[in-house]
Amino acid sequence: MRGLSLFQRGPSSLWPRRRKAHHFMLSSTSFCTDNGDGLQSSRVNIFDRHLKRKQRDRAAWLMDQKDSFVDAVAENVLDRLEDCKKSFPTALCLGGSVLPIRRLLRGRGGIEKLIMMDTSYDMVKLCKDAELDAQNEEIETSFIVGDEEFLPVKESSLDLVISCLGLHWTNDLPGAMIQSRLALKPDGLFLAAILGGETLKELRIACTVAQMEREGGISPRVSPLAQV
């Protein structure tokens, strides 16, 4: 697994403080990569986002609550918050592995308000049920069904954006990152972990060679992965 990225901008808060979890949904609105005609200028449809949403719906019912690999990546991401001297009162956790991020947060980053977002309604419901069952530190938690490619968040409204193992399925990765940057307040922080281009390289090469020898050609078996 490769590809851990972070960037900062340069301060404030959002909603009134209430120490309870609540649920809301927002319509999808994009704040970047629009060319004026309602079309994204650099958009290439590598992934069927509707199909990906269905896959995440299914994963919500089949996934284990704890996965050692995902937990290790989430812990690695959250560990970066301990390197920061400032706190991040309002945070957005993008789709991917939102449950491990919430479970392993343990007060890091000084987060007071946390928005948990996923493209899958079933995944969001799973997160909400887990939040109600858990007796974690008091963080005002909200839940959104939304798409990373059309981030439904106002500009300069967040102190922190976290994405753990989700952005590598977006068609417009730079656009999704730009939207996150626009959603951040000045001096905000973006933390993300994605599967990089060298992931399982040897296995992918072995499968390609085997398929060429047996079938005389190859077909894609793994999603395209981004290079740093």
From TrEMBL:
<dbReference type="GO" id="GO:0032259">
    <property type="term" value="P:methylation"/>
</dbReference>
<dbReference type="InterPro" id="IPR029063">
    <property type="entry name" value="SAM-dependent_MTases_sf"/>
</dbReference>
<dbReference type="InterPro" id="IPR050602">
    <property type="entry name" value="Malonyl-ACP_OMT"/>
</dbReference>
<dbReference type="GO" id="GO:0008757">
    <property type="term" value="F:S-adenosylmethionine-dependent methyltransferase activity"/>
</dbReference>
<dbReference type="GO" id="GO:0005739">
    <property type="term" value="C:mitochondrion"/>
</dbReference>
<feature type="domain" description="Methyltransferase type 11">
    <location>
        <begin position="104"/>
        <end position="191"/>
    </location>
</feature>
<dbReference type="InterPro" id="IPR013216">
    <property type="entry name" value="Methyltransf_11"/>
</dbReference>
<protein>
    <submittedName>
        <fullName>Methyltransferase type</fullName>
    </submittedName>
</protein>
<dbReference type="Pfam" id="PF08241">
    <property type="entry name" value="Methyltransf_11"/>
</dbReference>
<keyword id="KW-0808">Transferase</keyword>
<keyword id="KW-0489">Methyltransferase</keyword>
<dbReference type="GO" id="GO:0032981">
    <property type="term" value="P:mitochondrial respiratory chain complex I assembly"/>
</dbReference>
